[in-house]
NitT/TauT family transport system substrate-binding protein
Amino acid sequence: MALNKLKALAAAAIAAAGTVTTAQAADTVTFQLDWLPGGDKAPVYVCIEKGFCAEEGIEVKIEPGRGSSEAITKLATGVSDIGSADIGALMAAKVTEGVPVTAVMSIFNKGPHAFFVLKDSGIEKIEDIKGKEVATSPFTSSNVFLPLVLEDVGLSEDDIKLTKADPGALGPMLMTGSADVIVAWMTNVAIFTNQASQAGKEIMPFPWDAAGLELYSASLLASDKFLDERPEVAKRFVKAFKKSLEYVKENPTASAEAMVSQVPELTVADVEGAIIDTMVLEFNDVSDKDGVGVLMPERLSATWDRVSAAQGLDKEALDLETVVDRSFLPEN
């Protein structure tokens, strides 16, 4: 009995030592958000909660964000390794600052930008916002493209009364009539629908993509230092992230629950609604044709056309192939 007990204790000690070794061997990756946690950010939380990152030997630390520009700065300065941000913002930063950051995967292959109005507002098309009170967030990348979308329908910023407000105030401003129109992302349809329902109202979105603003948007961007010094870790992370993205599509409720377990101030209903809203930006005719996460030269060029025009940048100043590295994305 004593010998058997000694063997059992030895086996337990070896197992414990193995666990410690495994934990120590995990590669830490700092993931940079470009905005507050929400359903559109679910894949990285699912990667952690469902063990997809752990399966690839990766432990993830999440850094909060307040806009694509800040996220790109944190990646460029090495605060974070990889994260989500607008590829258009990266293109502009490449030209103006030469940031050492590279896109490795598309997340939104369509832009999320939209106008939201109340159904009883009398606004039936984008042109009808002329003369209206329009509210937007100070930090959203939508502001960059707003002049182009207005120009596409024969308007300019002088034709609207534009104000900037905290993103959390946009929905209430629309419901109370403080704004006739708000600029927000299609990822917020469920949230605004719930707010409108509580006020006895209905909302109607006008996605800018349908109005002709076709481009890549949120993408997986990485620090060049991370890609150069730890390429195998980067490949494993991108593989795990893509697996998580596909899991979220097939399991919105479980994904929402996984996210709320890590961010308890959110609700499963709101996160699941945002996940469903987000799917149309990730899985659609573009992904059917090109593949999930793929960054195609033609659409990259269309994106740069819009970004350069919106920001008054020289279209010839950027070699688009210096913005992307497709070698880290696993085959579909």
